[in-house]
Amino acid sequence: VDLDTAKQELEEFIPHVRNISDYSIRKIAGRDLVRFKQFKKQGIAVKFGRFSEKENNQIRKNVEGFLSITGIDSAEKLLFTSRYPEDKETINRLKAEHLFCEKLSEGIPRPWRLIYYRARKIFDPNNYKGRYTKEEKEKLKKYHALHGNDWKKISEMMSRSNLSVAMKYSEIKSAINYGPWSKEETQKLMHAVEEVMRKRMETEDTNSLSSSEKSRRDLLIDREKLYQKLPWTEIEAKVGTRYWRQCKQKWTTILTNKMTKGQRLYRGTEGLQAKINLIKRLYEMKVEDPNEVNWEELSNAIGDVPRAYVQAKFYKLKVTSVPFWQKKTFSEIVDYLFEEKLPELEEKL
Question: Which residue range or ranges hold the HTH myb-type domain (predicted)?
C-alpha cells in the first residue's frame, strides 16, 4: 500500500501513527498491518505497555520453535547476530528463508518491533547481572567519555545490556542528591514535566488545531498522560540533581497530593475500607497476571489517585500480609488476601 493509505489504515490500531517517521510507517505496514487486521477479525485488540507472562512465554515458544526449524545454535546468535560476525551471513539467510519476522510475532497482538525488543531483553545473557561494582561504574564513566551515547558499543565492552548501561550511566553521571527534595528541585521537576507535556501536545495538535487555537489553548490533557510513558531520562536531565527513578517517584507523590487536595489517604477507617475495596476488586477481576490488571480503573477503590499509587499500595499489602509471596503466582496472592486477610480487615473495620 502507498504511504497515505498505510497511515490511514494503521491509525485504527496505532492512534499516534501520524507522529511516526515515514520510514518507520513503511516498516510497520510491511510487518504488522496484515497481522493487525487478522487479530481484529478474531476480536483481539492490539496491545501496548508491559508484556504479560503469557506473552513472554509465547515469545520463548516462538524463538525455540524457530531455532529448531533452522538449526541455529542459540537464541543469542539469533537475536544478537552482530556478536557472531563469522556466522552472520548464514544466520541472516536462514532468517530470511524461514520468515523470522512472522514466526517471532506469531500469536502476539503487538507491533513486531516491540516483540523483537522484548525477545532481546528475555534472551540477552548480559541482562540481570546484579549490582554494578565500583570498578564497573568507573569503567562506564571512562567508556562514555570515549564513545558518548553509543550504548551498543559500551554494552559489548562491559558485557551488560544496552538498556542497563544507559540507565546506570544516567544515575551516576552527576552528583545525585539522595536527601529530601528542596523547594527549588521540586519546582524544577514540575517545570520539566510541564515542558515535556507541552512539547508532546504541540506535536499531537499539529494537524488538528489552527495557530490561533493553539495560542489560546492551555495545558488541558487526559489524566493518564500525567503519569504514563513520560520521558524520565529527559526530565532527569532538566532537574539535574536527581536520577530518573527519584523524579518518577516524586512526581507520583506530587500528583497524589494534588488529586486528593492534600488529604492523607490510607489512614484509619478510610484506609481499612480502601484495602478492603482493593482486595475485593482484584478478586472479582479473576486475572492471572498483574500486567492484565487495569490499575487505572482500580484507582477509585482508594480514591482519586494515580495508578502508580494503587500499585504501590497493593505491593505493600502483599509484602506485609502474604507469607512467601515471592513463591506465589499473582492469582494465588489475590486469593490469599481475599480468603485470609479480607475477613481480618472487615472485622477490624
Answer: 124-161
Pairwise CA distance, residues 349 & 337, whole Å? 16
| The C-alpha cell that represents 308 in the structure block | 502508580
Q: Which residue has the cell 539469533?
A: 78
Q: CA–CA distance from 238 to each of 101, 109, 164, 259 (Å)?
A: 38, 36, 21, 24
| CB-CB contact of 234 with 191 (8 Å) | no
DSSP H or E stretch at residue 261? none
The alpha carbons of the chain give a radius of gyration, in whole angstroms, of 23
Residue 100 grid coordinates? 523470522
Reduced to 3 states (helix: H, G, I; strand: E, B; else coil), residue 147 is helix
C-alpha cell at 134: 565500583
Confidence of residue 155 (pLDDT cuts 50, 70, 90): confident
Q: Give the SS3 label for residue 138.
A: helix
Q: Are 342 and 333 in contact (CB under 8 A)?
A: no
Per-residue pLDDT tens digits for 120-135: 888 888 777 778 888 9
DSSP E strand stretches across 186-345: none
The CA-atom distances, in angstroms, between 195 and each of 219, 233, 344 are 10, 14, 47
Going from the C-alpha of 248 to that of each of 49, 67, 282, the distances in angstroms are 17, 39, 25
* pTM over 0.90, yes/no: no
Locate the domains of the chain by residue range: 3-123, 134-173, 183-206+220-260, 268-348
Can you tell me which residue has the cell 495557530? 211
Quote the percentage of the chain above a pLDDT of 90. Answer: 19
**What's the distance, Cα to Cα, between the start and end of the chain in Å?**
62
Inter-residue contact 293 to 333 (CB < 8 Å)? no
Question: Do residues 313 and 302 lie in contact, with contact meaning Cβ atoms separated by under 8 Å?
Answer: yes
- 204-237 in b/e form (b: 16+ CB < 10 A) is beeeeeeeeeeeeeeeeeeeeebbeebebeebbe
Angle between helices 244-259 and 183-205 (to 10 degrees): 90
- What residue has cell string 494534588? 258
Exposed/middle/buried for residue 319 (C-beta within 10 Å: 0-12, 13-18, 19+): exposed
